[in-house]
Specification:
The complex is a heterotrimer of chains A (669), B (290) and C (153). Chain B is an alpha/beta fold and 290 residues long. Chain B is 49% helix and 11% strand. Helices cover 43% and strands 15% of the residues of chain C. Chain C has a four-stranded parallel beta sheet, with helices on both faces.
Chain lengths: 669, 290, 153
């Protein structure tokens, strides 16, 4: 028989002003199962807590009800006191007499009756409580970083430098991401590759980092501290252990007309290729879709010329299993391409290019060795028009958000052009200039004032070609909304930043949420900006939303520090409010019929199908649901769905909830 | 085969030749056009900026009459009329309250089950399948297909695949043996709204269109909207003053050009009704090789 | 005869509506004292048979309230609750149960005022309807005996 102690708090006068607390205690003492009841001025104070601890010992209490403020306020306090008194903290429950009684009703008998009712409910619940114990989960102290751009590189280095193992998976043949394509970076105009490549090399050489390029995450299962990840190592067709990166193969490869992704399609590469000279690792892969040998069955030149004998046409994709404790998702972004813009020619005008293409033109390692030349005829443009907000902030284009980086990089582009061609003319059409950031606005002012870039506030309605010029028709809204027409040699569209095309499938593999634009969703927009709602999976960089390099690096370091926090102990402790499937020895005794409706509805993928087998014959005797306590967050959706009540939620069990309801109602209100 | 027909004011007046040529082509292909009896103004250019209810009720009246008349499809050659009728139909079908209000105004039932066809849809659906057997001549000229505003916009009403760079007219012209040119002004404004009030602006806007077509070597300009036609055809003296040069490219309705390729006479197609002589376009025509 | 004071049981989720009710308290918003709150982790946890249990034990009205759509602490529990309610309601309609006695609502942690208004509205509504006696009407009918027999088992 339960021996429950009831402690009614006055909360100074907060409760006692409208509730007859003595009466509540008096009535509580009469309730079945209650061995002791009292009231006191401040239950949460030190003397108040001492009274609870003493009462537990004196009256041999087995459960506690504290009638006080909301459990959201002091549940933890009183549970700690209960534990000090020697009873399981989960046998202590709170009756909310302040926020939901004394503060919202006048001093009447009905108010006191309500208080008594609530105490009775909770007494009944406690009488059905069972001791619960925090769940300990071991932590695998290896982190997986998905994506080898600057976000992934930063996170990986931070975690690795803290002494933990890191596995980095990058889908392209080299790490570096979009940052490696950039010419110079705002607001300092330092060369992107100069600051990035040392970090890329550091990743490759770090003793704590295992790098898998040309690889993709296949599936993620398990839970925080214990993820099981399958990684597909795509067949490079080149044996990495033999290849020296000498480059003979790609010099001799006859398929030379493949648009080069690294140069944003402005030049061509071969079928066997290393994406760029500073690639890490700087060893080639064969692009099988464009290789004569794989498509037509003949060629094989690379194999013949390779001095190391590293070419292996028979190589196959390999799936490896890894165990990690936490994951950083840093899969980056994409940009809209020029063919998204019918009013600017559907991508059919060669000299209408996007921002990334301009980066390549302006980059010393680019197809023009840093000379800004027109893609159509290689001439140096005398007049360039830059269009900020190409697609962004445009509901008609389905992209309502601001792409955030374009104002800055457009100013940078215009500046780079002016620095190289002082006599050239640069025009920028803009809606607003959004240059919030350290030294950002100064940078834009510099473009306008020192480098003489013409900023025109207005949008462009159309671009068409005439006599080898691009006619840009727009409006200057600061000049009486006058239509303006500029005969440009080249137009650069600062096209919208969008999620990667495969973002949705990545999110589904990881079981993380994403928004309607397929950017990954953080757990809380303000207070948990780097975590996802799947414990143990963090976000870094532009896969979450458009971001510049400083913000990306900050977030990556934040994600890394979250993971280092997680890795700081060998075990994680979790609240035991989790679902359980009724099971007793021998294991066949469960009422679960294995319909697995719970598995369908669980938002956390915490329920697994379990086959109960005959130990000797291996024959499947029964299929049942099984809760993974590491993944379960305790929402209880499965409980409500279970057809025969075989699954229950600890701390909010069917019995407890029913006894609460019954206890409420057997007296008049 | 019978299809309903809504002329609107222009096809009864300034653009009679558009109507005439549409009838001629249809007749040639065995399609009978049946005019909606007692049709009223579509409300274009003024109603929707003055009174929202009126702008819906006016076209609704015509559509209800068409229903009464038992027409399941109507072709609306004028781009402005099509825009108004389609917008009205869409508004009524999307909102029950508007439907109830409108039925009260027009004092007729409105079910909205009349399908509206743009001139392109009509040609595509009824003329294209049989056109080859009637096309006897090759237009043999460079045409600049001009859409202006309302043929292409708004996108959800006109249902064009690429409203910023439509190709519907080009398809028709290729069929008629012409060579459509790639040019820059096919969806630019002709100044339609200012047709009467600010002819100076019309001259400026239409002038640029003509100039680009001329510079790119067009022999004729093809239109499918009465407003476009009158601005490009009628305002040549003002345009000449504006551009300080004479451009004499003829402006043909799409149905006139198609009719020519079917061997229909210039007179039957109303080519004699134009201000800019159309002889230049007609003279290019050659017999189609068998 | 004193005025009929309905008994209303509120089934609420811990994260939104329970917190909303707390907010009504901290902002001292007064409302009818006819409501008793039962706290669940999530509306997704609420087994709708408990609603029936409440009526069986003398409740006159029931409120079910949780986080607004898309705000669920557990991402989708409230959607499940909403779906279940739609199905459940149609069953109640079928057996002739007055579904007006059950109010389904969303009250966020920031909507203390909304919570107070909801309780007042439901209290007034149930007051107007009078006590829930449908089960008592079964008295003397064989069904009642069968029913009693069934639940005492």
């Amino acid at each position: 028989m339960a021996r429950i102690g009831v402690f009614i708090c006055h909360c100074g006068e907060n409760i006692s002003a409208t509730v007859d607390v003595a009466k509540v205690a008096e009535e509580a003492a009469k309730m079945p199962g209650v061995a002791y009841a009292m009231d006191y001025k401040y239950m949460c104070s030190d003397p108040g807590q001492t009274k609870i601890i003493e009462a537990i010992k004196e009256h041999k209490l087995t459960g506690i009800v504290v009638g006080a403020c909301s459990p959201r306020m002091h549940e933890a306090t009183f549970r700690k006191a209960a534990e000090k008194g020697g009873i399981n903290p989960f046998l202590c429950e709170i009756a909310n007499l302040r926020e939901q009684v004394s503060w919202v009703h006048p001093r009447t008998e009905a108010t006191t009756r309500k208080a008594i009712d609530i105490v009775r409910t909770i007494v009944n619940k406690v009488s059905k409580d069972t001791p619960l114990f925090p769940i300990k989960v071991p932590v695998t102290k290896t982190a997986l970083v998905i994506g080898g751009g600057i976000a992934g590189i930063q996170a990986a280095l931070d975690i690795a430098n803290a002494g933990h193992q890191v596995i980095m998976v990058e889908k392209s043949p080299s790490i570096g991401g979009h940052m490696s394509q950039l010419s110079e970076t705002f607001p300092t105009l330092d060369c992107s590759q100069c600051i990035l490549t040392p970090r890329m090399v550091e990743v490759a050489q770090h003793p704590n980092i295992t790098l898998h390029t040309f690889a993709e995450v296949e599936s993620v299962s398990g839970f925080v501290g214990n993820f099981d990840v399958k990684v597909r190592l795509k067949a490079r067709s080149v044996d990495m252990s033999k290849c020296t990166g000498c480059g003979t193969c790609w010099q001799k490869c006859p398929s030379k007309k493949i648009p080069d992704e690294f140069n944003a399609g402005l030049s061509y590469r071969t079928a066997i290729y290393s994406p760029f000279p500073q690639a890490v690792p700087n060893k080639p892969v064969i692009d099988r879709a464009n290789c004569n040998y794989f498509q037509k069955g003949k060629c094989g030149i690379c194999k013949k010329v390779c001095p190391a004998g590293a070419i292996d046409y028979e190589m196959e994709d390999e799936i490896i299993d890894i165990k990690v404790g936490a994951i950083v998702t840093a899969t980056g972004f994409d940009i809209k391409h020029t063919d998204f813009f019918p009013e600017y020619g559907y991508g059919e005008f060669k000299d209408v290019i996007d921002g990334l293409q301009f980066e390549r033109l302006a980059s010393a390692s680019g197809p023009t060795s840093g000379e800004i030349r027109r893609p159509s005829d290689g001439k140096i443009p005398e007049k360039i028009v830059f269009l900020a907000c190409s697609g962004s902030r445009d509901k008609a284009k389905g992209i309502e958000y601001c792409s955030k980086i374009c104002c800055m990089y457009t100013a940078k582009h215009a500046m780079l052009y002016k620095h190289k061609h002082h006599e050239g003319n640069a025009y920028v059409f803009y809606m607003d200039i959004r240059s919030a950031g350290k030294n950002y606005d100064e940078f834009v002012r510099r473009a306008i004032e020192e480098d003489d870039v013409h900023y025109i506030r207005g949008r462009v309605s159309r671009i068409y070609e005439k006599d080898g010029k691009l006619i840009v028709k727009g409006v200057d809204t600061l000049m009486n909304a006058e239509p303006v027409e500029i005969e440009a040699d080249m137009v650069v569209l600062a096209t919208a930043v969008v999620a990667n095309p495969d973002a949705e499938s990545v999110a589904q593999k990881m079981h993380i949420s994403y928004d309607k634009h397929h950017f990954f969703a953080e757990a809380h927009p303000k207070l948990r900006p780097v975590e996802t709602n799947t414990a143990g999976i963090m976000l870094a960089g532009a896969c979450q939303t458009a971001k510049d390099i400083p913000d990306t690096v900050s977030q990556a370091s934040a994600a890394a520090s979250k993971i280092m926090g997680l890795f700081s102990s060998d075990e994680m402790t979790r609240e035991p409010v989790v679902a359980v499937v009724n099971r007793c020895m021998p294991p066949l005794f469960t009422t679960c019929t294995g319909c697995l409706l719970c598995l369908e509805v669980c938002p956390y993928h915490a329920i697994e199908r379990e086959e109960i087998k005959d130990r000797r014959t291996g024959e499947i005797l029964k299929v049942a649901a099984k809760v993974n306590a590491g993944l379960c967050q305790g929402c209880g959706t499965c409980v409500a769905f279970c057809r025969n009540k075989s699954i229950d939620l600890q701390g909010f069990s069917n019995q407890q909830m029913l006894s609460e309801v019954v206890a409420l109602l057997n007296k008049p209100f | 085969m019978k299809v309903g027909f809504y002329p609107g004011c222009s096809l009864e007046g300034s653009s009679k030749e558009y109507s005439k040529s549409l009838f001629a082509v249809s007749e040639k292909c065995g399609i009978t056009l049946e005019e909606i009896k007692d049709w009223s103004c579509c409300g274009a250019s003024a109603a929707h900026s003055l009174n929202h209810d009126l702008s819906i009720a006016l076209p609704a009246r015509t559509l209800a009459l068409a229903e009464k008349q038992g027409l399941s499809e109507i072709v609306i050659p004028c781009a402005a009329c099509y825009g108004r009728l389609a917008a009205s139909q869409q508004a009524i079908l999307n909102d029950k309250a508007i439907l109830e209000k409108t039925e009260k105004y027009i004092d007729m039932a409105f079910t909205g089950n009349v399908q509206l066809l743009t001139v392109f849809e009509f040609l595509q659906k009824y003329i294209f399948p049989v056109a080859d057997q009637y096309i006897v001549d090759k237009l043999n000229q460079k045409t600049a297909c001009y859409y202006g505003c309302l043929l292409a916009r708004p996108k959800d009403l006109t249902k064009l695949e690429r409203p910023e760079n439509p190709m519907e007219m080009e398809k028709v012209m290729e069929k008629a043996g012409a060579t459509p040119i790639d040019w820059a002004f096919k969806t630019e404004c002709c100044g339609a709204g200012f047709s009467m009030s600010r002819t100076d602006l019309v001259a400026k806007l239409s002038g640029r269109i003509l100039e680009d077509a001329a510079e790119r070597g067009a022999d004729s300009i093809i239109v499918a909207c009465p407003m476009c036609h009158s601005n490009l055809d009628l305002r040549r003296p003002e345009i000449k003053k504006q551009l300080k040069k004479d451009i004499n490219i003829p402006v043909l309705f799409i149905t006139q050009a198609l009719g020519l390729s079917m061997g229909i006479s210039a007179k039957e197609l109303g080519l004699d009704k134009h201000f800019v002589p159309t002889g230049k376009a007609v003279s290019c025509i050659v017999k189609k090789e068998a | 005869m004193s005025e009929f004071e309905p008994k209303i049981v509120a089934f609420v989720c811990n994260w939104c509506t329970y917190a909303g009710a707390d907010l009504a308290g901290t902002s001292r918003t007064q409302y009818a004292s006819n409501v008793r709150i039962v706290r669940f982790p999530c509306t997704g946890r609420i087994d709708f048979m408990l609603l029936m249990k409440a009526f069986e034990n003398g409740a006159d009205g029931v409120i079910v309230s949780g986080c607004h759509p898309n705000d669920c602490h557990y991402t989708s529990g409230n959607f499940h609750a909403r779906r279940r309610w739609i199905v459940f309601r149609s069953i109640l309609d079928l057996i002739g149960f007055d579904t007006d006695r059950i109010t389904f609502s969303w009250v966020s942690a920031a909507e203390g005022k909304k919570w107070a208004n909801l309780v007042d509205e439901v209290t007034d509504k149930i007051k107007a309807k009078g006590p829930f006696t449908d089960l008592d009407k079964l008295d003397g009918v064989q069904l009642k005996e069968l029913y009693d027999e069934a639940i005492t088992k």
